[in-house]
Amino acid sequence: xxxxxxxxxxxxxxxxxxxxxxxxxxxxxxxxxxxxxxxxxxxxxxxxxxxxxxxxxxxxxxxxxxxxxxxxxxxxxxxxxxxxxxxxxxxxxxxxxxxxxxxxxxxxxxxxxxxxxxxxxxxxxxxxxxxxxxxxxxxxxxxxxxxxxxxxxxxxxx
Length: 158
What we know:
single chain, alpha/beta, Glutaredoxin, five-stranded mixed β-sheet, two-stranded antiparallel ribbon, 23% strand, globular
């Protein structure tokens, strides 16, 4: 069994990855460097109540995140077909990424090994690829409000 690494810290370079997404193409974190900020949003499982509310909110505020120069990358351990069905059911605008092998979840220290899914966690990465803010929810049913996430993003421009 592969152990989960400690979560990278604010100021660290974000661990790079490439994951398959619901848009049909692989998404590489490095592809955003120098172009956009990135909000990684690990969520435990598709079709659960808190995850559904969170991802629908990301879609509702899609233009606000884009206007703030930030790509939102929601990541779960669900398979691509499951995530495609989830995205279609709720008409989500955001591309959902599948970390089915749990490699990225382990690299970011958010995998709950005994449950084999992740904590709900956020990593805000600036255009240089450095983590500027991170938060892991104490309870799976909690989530950050988009307004709070957008306030964190606004600090990157300051």
